[in-house]
Structure formats: C-alpha cells, structure tokens
Amino acid sequence: MSPEERASEGIFLGFQYPIEIPGVSMVNFMKTAVNEQRKHKGLEPLSSSDFLKLMREKKELVELDADLVSRSVNEGFSGGEKKRNEIFQMAMLEPKLSILDETDSGLDIDALKVVANGVNKLKSPDNASIVITHYQRLLDYIVPDFVHVLYNGKIIKSGGKELALELEEKGYDWLKKGVE
Amino acid sequence: MSLETIKTDTKERFIELYQENQDLIKNDLPDYINEVREKAFEQFKKLGIPDKKNENYKYTDLNKEFDNTYKMYLSPKNIEFQVDDIFKCDVPDLNTKVILLLNGWYYDRENLIQELPGGVIIGSFQKAAELYPDLVKKHFAKYAGFENEGLVALNTAFVKDGVFLYVPKGVVIEKPIQIINILMDDEEGLTQHRNLFILEENSQASIVVCDHTLSMPNFVTNSVSEFYIGENAQFDFSRMQNEHNGSKQVSHLYFHQERDSRVSANNISLHGGLIRNNVNVLLNGEGCENNTYGLYLTDKGQHIDNYVFIDHANPNCTSNQLFKGVLDDFATGAFNGKVLVRKDAQNTLAYQTNNNILLTDDADFNTKPQLEIYADDVKCSHGATVGQLDEDALFYLRSRGINKKEAKLLLMYAFAHDVIHKIQVPALQERIQDLVDKRLRGELSRCNNCQMHCC
After folding, report:
1. Residues A10 and A83 in one domain
2. Are residues A74 and A117 in the same domain?
3. Is the separation of the CB atoms in B166 and B129 below 8 Å?
4. From CA B289, how far away is CA B260, in angstroms rounded?
5. Which strand ranges, in their side-by-side order, compose the sheet holding B262-271?
6. Which residues of A, range 53-82, sit inside 8 Å of B by Cβ?
7. Does residue A178 sit in the same domain as residue A128?
8. Could B400 and A24 be called an inter-chain contact, meaning their C-beta atoms sit closer than 8 Å?
C-alpha cells in the first residue's frame, strides 16, 4: 500500500522529526489532505467555510497558536510547536490508528503536557494510539492501557501500565537478558 | 560540369534584406534614428547572430533559430482581429487601458499616441520618434549597446515600431499599465519590436507585459526594450511569457538606473518553444536598488535561457537576483547571471540565487552564477542548485493522505511561490499564482487557444 492509501485507510504517523516544507501553507496542506481522505471514503469535499470551522475547533483542542496555522508547514516552528502541529494534524484527520514516534523527544515539561493533553482528548472507543517512547515521563500524562517492550523488532514483554513503572525502576537489561 | 553550392548564410540574408529595402526601412522614421540605424547595421555586418562559440550563448544556438525564411514586415500588415473578443482584462486594479502590439506593431492605428493627465505620454514608438524628437533622441539606443551584441545591432538596424512611455518628473501612475504582445498570422514571421520607457526623477510606474501567440505558425521574436529610470524613481516591471512551442523569443531588456532609483523586474516564463531573456542593468548612481526575479516552467522539448548582467558601477547599491525553474520531460535550460562590482562600488550588497528542479532524468540544466568583484568593502553571495523534489517532504505529504501527483504539485508550487511572492501588485500576484498552478497541472499546454484573457 502506498503511504497515501495507508493514511486514507486510517493510519496516522506522528513523526519524530517533522519536516519543514517552506511555501506549502498549513491551510492548503490540511485542506488537501482532509479532502483527499474524504474522496477515498466516497465523501464530498468540505466547503471552505466548513473546513475553516473544523480547523478552528481542532486548533483550540490542541492549543495551537492561530498564527502557526497561517504559516508554511512547520517552517520556523520550534521543536514543541512541530510536535503540537503533529497532534493537530492527527485531530484534523481523525485516524483509527495513530502511531506517535517519540513524540516526547525534545519537549520541555509544559510542551509535553500540552501534547499529552491533545492525545488524551482525541482518545475514543473507536480509535487507538501507539505511543513510542523510552521514558516513563510521557506516560505520567498519557496513561497507557497496554505496555509492550519492543526489542530487535520483536515484542519481548507485555503488560499493563505498571510494567512501565517497573521498567523505570529496573531498566531494560533484565528483559534483554531473558531474551538472549 | 560542376555544381555550385549556394550557401545563404543567415547574416548575409539579413544584410541583403537591409540593403535591398533601405528606403522602405527608413521611410517612416526621422533622420536621427536612421543615423543610428546605419551604425547598427555596420556593426551587425561585423557581429552577425551569436552562435554557441559566443560564451554568452553557449547553451542556446540562436544562429540556428534565425536561419529560416520567416517573413519580416516593414509596415503593419492588416489582420482581422477583435480585441474585445480575446482580451477582457478582468484583473482588478489594473489600468483598463490596454496597450497592444500585434506582430511588433502598435495596434491602435487611430490613436498612435496618447497624452495622459500629468504629461504622461504613451503610444507607438514610431509616432513618438516623430512627435517628440528631443525626448527620443536623448534616450534611444543609449542603453542598449550594440557594439558587442549582434542581435541588438540587428534590432536597431531594423527598428520600426514598439511601445513608448514617458513619465515626467514627479508623476506617479497608480495603476499598472498592461502591454500585450500578440503574435498572430497565417504565415511564419519574424518580429523585432523596440520599446522605450522613460521615467524621469521621482516618478513612479508599473508595467505588466504579456507575450502571446494566437495562431499556429512559427514565430521568431527579437525585441529590445530600453528603460531609463531617473533619480529616485520607482519602476515595477512584470512580464509573462506565454507562447506556443513553435515560437522562439529573444528579448533584451536594458535598465539604466540613476541615483536612488528602485527597479523590480519579474520574468515569468510560462510557456514557449525557446526563450532567451537578456537582462542588463546599469546602476549609474549611488543608492540604487535592483531586484531581478525569474520563474520558468518548461516541459517537452522547450528551452529556456536567462542571462542577467548587473553592473554595480557605483557605491551603496543593492541588487537581488532570484531565478527558479522547474523542468519536465526533456526540456533544457540555462542560467547565466553575472554581477560586476566595480572598483569604486563600496558598500555594495549583491545577492544571486538560481534554483532548479528537474522532474525527469532527461531534463537538462546548466547554471553559471558569477561574481566579479573589484571593490573591497562589499557583501555579495551567489549560489545555484539543480536537484529533484525533496523525497522526505513528499513522504510527509503522502503520509497525510495526499496522493503522489498532488503532493508533487504542492511541492512544485511551493518552490515557485518564492518568486511569485515578489510580484508587487497583489491582484496580479494572485492571477499569476493561478496561471502557474494551471501550468503545473498541465492545463495550460495549448497556449494559442488560451482562454486566459491574458493576465
């Protein structure tokens, strides 16, 4: 499947290092993306006013500054703004499965809270999020239903949120030893 | 028995044409023009048409393009043509008065010259040469030197008509004036119009030029425009080249800037078989600013060649060059930009950038950004890139559900945006944005049937 098909089928990837695309405006980018995905689902494209309304709503949800939306995609955004922008896009596209790749890397505590808050608000019985991280810190704000430990491409341990706490305390070595 | 091969050299043909038709060529222009004409002709005899051996024309063989039997008219040909049917300018904020050149001739034969409020004069070059000899004599052929440029010599030798604009001291023309060059004929033709723009001190004007072909036959254009920009005057020039694949266009722009003047020139090449733009700028006083921008979008077998020469002859001047292009299919192109900072031109700021995207392996581009600096207190930079669309950016867009074609378009559009953004007239900027969008989508490929109402 091509990346665009995967996206239209409801998979969303939150990038660890979102790329800057000078010249492509956020509005144009999101409008194209939303309408392409609607087309894939056999829906009519959103009218400009409906689209802007949706954008306003979601912008507030993830506390994204209004002026960021009027700029080019990620251009000149700080690390935190870029991550917030990822969550904003996730809110706009309403995926069934989100994969957030080290969303916490490079974030200070305040930005982390905002991003985590966004993820929590978007959580519903109809969707799922996979949050990839190395630290407990993010999981203080996003409380996981399941924790899996991935090592060399394989899940070597699964558990509930208490597994993360255990890892924080003991590190990963004891798990790695069990595998080798 | 022996057969003699008749070699009709391109240069020889023009020389013959000139000598056989001298009376007709000279009849409707005053002596002071014909004197210059004679000199230009003598020079053309020496120079001929540049071929690839000429360093400045290394990537564009013009000798080949002029080697044909296209007709050149020495008086305007009567062509049936309903202006209103084709051009209804619907860009708000543009002067509704449209100046039209048809195959290089001023179209409105009833009103060859108009005097507007404030003493502005606009109209046919030929008529202006007759009515305002003092003005024309002072500026004609003073900036477009033909000593080293065979094509300018050729144009000057055959000078007949074109556009003339005069803006007196302190006069500000608020709305942009639109000039449309139309090529339309049922036979192949060569046109060589000659424009002269004079902006006196503290004046202001902006001009939008559109080049169009409206019929199928092949055309060759060799046009020369001279711009005199007086002290503290401000001039804004935008040009859209939109001709069919059978057209070959060489244009020479000469900007002569006096102290504290500001010039902005946007060259948007949307479509055309072969386009060669020569832009020459002389910063003839302190404190001048010159911005020369270009955007070119080519595909199929099209060829684009931009040559820019900025002469920083005086201190405290600024120049910016930004040329960007997208080449598709097996299109070819070249950029040759040269900034010369003379010994006394201290505190010069000069920037030059040329970026290109090649969409296919067969597209080909040569770029040569040059700085030649003789002063020691200057800030100059130059750079050029030739590359592909950014794969990471493409993936990012696609990962949000945007299909590959659309994602590519978004990126190309973003790439072009830099240049479009420089256009000063907002309404025009919007229209060009729209045209560029259509062009990139391939909806503007049959330009001789174009329903764009020009700009």
Report:
1. yes
2. yes
3. no
4. 7
5. B105-106, B98-102, B177-183, B204-213, B234-242, B262-271, B289-298, B318-327, B348-358, B378-387
6. 72-73
7. no
8. no
ipTM: 0.94
- Whether A4 sits inside 8 A of B410 (CB atoms) is no
Quote the domain boundaries for residue A41: 3-143
Confidence of residue B134 (pLDDT cuts 50, 70, 90): very high
**Cβ contacts of B26 within 8 Å, gap of 6 or more:** B34, B37
pLDDT at A69 (0 to 100): 84
Contact A93/B at CB under 8 A: yes
Please provide the distance, in angstroms rounded to a whole number, between the alpha carbons at the two ends of chain A: 34
Does residue A170 share a domain with residue A152? yes
Mean pLDDT of B218-230: 96
Q: The tokens 């969409």 sit on which residue? A: B359
CA distance A13 to A6: 10
CA–CA dist A132, B438 (Å, integer): 42
**Partner residue facing B414 (CB), from A23, A36, A93:** A23
Q: Which of A1, A36, A98 to mutate to test the interface with B (most CBs of B within 10 A)?
A: A36
CB B225 within 8 A of CB B249: no
DSSP characters over B254-281: EEEE-TT-EEEEEEEEEE-SEEEEEEEE
Domain containing residue A134: CATH number? 3.40.50.300
The answer to whether the Cβ–Cβ distance between B396 and A15 falls below 8 Å is yes
Q: Which amino acid is at A159?
A: G
Q: How far is A178 from chain B (nearest CA, A)?
A: 37
Cα–Cα distances in Å, from A150 out to A47, A130, A134, B121? Answer: 43, 12, 11, 78
In a shared domain, residues A150 and A79: no
Chain B residues touching residue A8 (CB < 8 angstroms): 401
B455 vs B195, residue with greater confidence:
B195
The one-digit pLDDT tens for each residue of chain A (180 residues) are 999 999 999 999 999 999 999 889 999 999 999 999 999 999 999 999 999 999 999 998 888 888 888 899 999 998 889 999 999 999 999 999 999 998 888 888 888 888 899 899 999 999 999 999 888 888 889 999 999 999 989 999 999 989 988 888 888 888 888 777
Say whether both A176 and A88 belong to one domain: no
Angle in degrees, 0-180, between the axes of helices B10-20 and B150-157, rounded to the nearest 10: 20
Contact criterion met (CB < 8 Å) for A29 and B404: no
Instruction: Report the domain count for chain A.
Output: 2
Cross-chain Cβ contact B414/A93 below 8 Å: no
How many beta-carbon pairs under 8 angstroms link A with B? 70
CB contact under 8 A, A24 and B418: no
CB B171 within 8 A of CB B206: no
Closest by Cβ to B403, choosing from A28, A30, A36: A36
> What does the block give as tokens for A115?
């991003």
Q: Which helix (H) or strand (E) holds B244?
A: none
The residue in chain B having the minimum alpha-carbon distance to the alpha carbon of residue A25 is B414
Q: Is residue A80 located within the same domain as residue A43? A: yes
Are A37 and A120 members of one domain?
A: yes
* Per-residue pLDDT tens over the stretch B355-383: 999 999 999 999 999 999 999 999 999 99
Tell whether A15 is within 8 A of chain B (Cβ).
yes
Chain B residue closest to A24 (CA)?
A: B414
